[in-house]
Amino acid sequence: MSLFEVKNITVSFGGVKALNDVSFTVDKGEIFTIIGPNGAGKSTLFNVISRIYEPSNGEIFFNGENISKIKPHNISALGIARTFQNLELFENATVLQNMLLGRHIYKKTNILSEILFTNKTRQQEREHRLKIEEVIDFLDLQHYRDTLINGLPYGVRKNVELARALCTAPKLLLLDEPSSGLTNEETNDLGFWIKDIQSILGITIIMIEHDMSFVNKVSDRILALNYGEILASGLPSEIKENADVKQAYMGE
Amino acid sequence: MRFIFKTNYAQDINIARHGGDKFWYSLLIILMLAMPLIIDDFYLGEISYVCILAIAGIGLMILSGYTGLASLGHAAFLGIGAYTHAFLLTNGVPFFASIPIVVIVSFMVGALIGIPILRLTGMYLAIATLALCFIAEHVFIKWEHFTGGNRGMPVPQPEIMGMSFYDSTTFYYVCLAFLILSMFAAINILRSPTGRAFVAIRDSEIAAQSLGVNLGLYKALSFAISGAFTGLAGALLAHYIGYLAPDIFNIFLSLTLLLLIVVGGMGSLHGTVFGAIFVGSLPQLIAICRDYLPSSVGSQPGLEPMLFGLILVLFILYEPLGIYGRWVKIKLFFQLFPTYKKQTFKKQKVFTKSDRV
After folding, report:
1. B163-164 and B159-160: which strand pairing?
2. Contact, B211 vs A79, CB < 8 A?
3. Mean pLDDT within B280-286
4. Fewest C-beta in 10 Å: which of A43, B45, B116, B259?
5. Given this model, what pLDDT does residue B282 score?
6. Could you tell me which of B103, B102, B86 has the C-alpha nearest to residue B158?
7. Smallest Cβ distance to B356: which of A86, A92, A116?
């Protein structure tokens, strides 16, 4: 059975249909890439999945459960984590604090035990920290633990956002243009990391991406969108040869 | 320059980052405890007032500095705390039973007001909290059974272990103890998941939500916690003033609190103390300066609010991080001595923030 399923999703903003009757499924352990020109509805799709936008029609299933009525702040507890196209880090906090927020869904203490900073709270902080150190080692962030996000270069910020998403220990990871703004070297590293996230951590990935060579290298399957509709979906080699996709990207 | 070699996760969890912290803060506490031996009653009273302001500042700092929600109505919480406390004491509730009740009442009021009001953001939230301030003042006037209305209400001065609150030394120690307790409570909140969730809401609501932070719940919680601290400060303020009248808790008091956290330094608990010292001592400084000014300037009635406003504007323009921000810079200057660069604190222009979600 598929891990994740989008069924007949339609989103309209006034008269504009940002997504029109989009359906697809993602299998467990897959790297599934969504491509498409600007304004194709890719980010809208992500925002529908993380329940920031309300679809006018359609349903989304995760692990067989219908998640189209769940509150946005409960999505991450189900095991869906995401990154944002234009970085949404907590700028005036350190890298560690950002990552600790990734552990928010595992919080077991209440406000009283936090005010008294009981042993339980201290223990919880240590456990979170242990988990975070695993992610830090995984993504080579050792140098930046106590640095404020404000003072970090763009590539590292992107990396921290990915790290923060990994700290929630997700089953499904949504990456919105992970390679945009990165240098070639950083993009290469990212390719390895994404492969590792899939193979070592066993996380399914849905990714929006424009860099086609990067897409072809890491993706298992690709979905092409244009004007809110599905142009094509299939293996990277099939998409490369698809006439509709070529037309959408390069004209006649 | 101090280099901290971390060998244990506890070093990132503990309040004191290194031995130097422990040393200096212990020294500060000893100095504060010895204060009654050093200075006379008048200044002891002033320091008690600074402690009270600092507690109220902690409350507003958690809401504005850490959760990023503006409030122009915090005088209302000071009033709620003061009147509840005075009412309970008048009805024979002992001091140490009254204080927790005051804290709980202000917490509940904060939560109740917070739930509807915090659906608003930015300017609209500021206006709503401004309204809260006026409504509260009106309630204090009209609810005569509880507040004594415009006639006002005397605050009974209780005795603790045979020591009267009329004695400024006793009152000073009570205020200092509550400030230290409040400080620890605030630090503990801020270093645990709840405090981090507040910071997350301040910096990016959308990311906070996607990480599982329930925005409505945590905003209301922040408002409630903020109300609780400010209510506690209100209870102590009642003793300091001695006689409650509704017009004490007016908009000007709210603005003073706002001035306190901005001048002290947004987003730092140190800032609340710096700000409280500043706000507490400013009227005295003005009074002293008044004697040296020409009488046409010195006797102007609006001198104090005007100076407050001027200082607020100057701080926002030249030192947005307040006195604490300046303190950090000075400290770093000496730590790095010959190699300090002005650019260290220059705010980078960033173009990555966007309204698109």
Report:
1. antiparallel
2. no
3. 85
4. B116
5. 85
6. B86
7. A86
Mean pLDDT (whole number) for B255-262: 92
Cα angle at B308 between B302 and B313, to 5 degrees?
Answer: 125
Helix (H, G, I), strand (E, B) or coil at A60: strand
Q: How far is CA B78 from the centre of its chain?
A: 11
d(CA B303, CA B327): 28
**Radius of gyration of chain A from Cα atoms?**
19
Q: In this structure, are residues B232 and B81 in contact, taking their beta carbons and an 8 Å threshold? A: yes
User: What per-residue confidence (pLDDT) applies to B350?
Assistant: 55
Number of H helices, E strands in chain A: 10, 10
Whether ipTM exceeds 0.85 = yes
Q: Which of A78, A108, A114 to mutate to test the interface with B (most CBs of B within 10 A)?
A: A114
Rounded to whole angstroms, what are the CA distances from A211 to A38, A191, A241, B142, B254?
13, 11, 17, 68, 53
pLDDT-derived band of residue B356, with 50, 70 and 90 as boundaries?
very low
Q: Checking phi first, is residue A125 left (phi over 0); if not, alpha (psi -120 to 50) or beta?
A: alpha
Nearest residue in chain A measured CA to CA from B346: A151
Tokens of residue A74, six digits: 């409960």
- Cα(first)–Cα(last) distance of chain B, in Å? 42
| B positions 202-221 inside 8 Å of A (CB) | 202-204, 206-215, 221
Q: How far apart are CA B84 and CA A138, in angstroms?
A: 54
Contact A101 B200 (CB under 8 A): yes
- For residue B353, pLDDT over 70 is answered with no
Those residues whose C-beta lies under 8 Å from the C-beta of residue A125, and which sit 6 or more positions away, are B9, B13, B191, B192
pLDDT tens digits, residue range A26-72? 999 999 999 988 888 899 999 999 998 999 999 999 998 999 889 99
Query: Is the CB of B200 less than 8 angstroms away from the CB of A168?
Result: no
More reliable by pLDDT, A235 or A248 = A235
Instruction: Return the residue of A nearest to B201 by Cα.
Output: A90
Hey, what amino acid is at B224?
Answer: A
Q: Do A91 and B203 touch (CB under 8 A)?
A: yes
pLDDT value of residue B291: 79
- Domains within chain A, CATH numbers bracketed: 1-79+170-252 (3.40.50.300), 89-168 (no CATH)
Helices B41-60 & B168-190, crossing angle to 10 degrees?
Answer: 20
Residue range B173-224, pLDDT digits in tens: 999 999 999 999 999 999 999 999 999 999 999 999 999 999 999 999 999 9
The amino acid at A185: E
Q: Do A104 and B199 touch (CB under 8 A)?
A: no
Read off the pLDDT of each residue in B303-311 and give the average, rounded to a whole number: 82
For the residues A89-118, what does the mean pLDDT come to?
Answer: 92
Instruction: Tell me the chain B residues in contact with residue A107 when contact means C-beta distances shorter than 8 Å.
Output: 193
Helix A184-199 vs helix A154-167: angle between axes, to the nearest 10 degrees?
10
Strands A65-66 and A57-62: antiparallel
Tokens of residue B335, six digits: 């730590």
Contacts of B59 in chain A (CB under 8 A): none
What is the spatial distance between Cα B208 and Cα B202, in angstroms, rounded to a whole number?
9
**Farthest-apart Cα atoms in chain A, separation:** 68
Higher pLDDT, A104 or B17: A104
Please name which of A223, A204, A215 lies closest in space to residue A29, comparing C-alpha atoms.
A204
Nearest to B211 among A76, A115, A122 (CB): A76
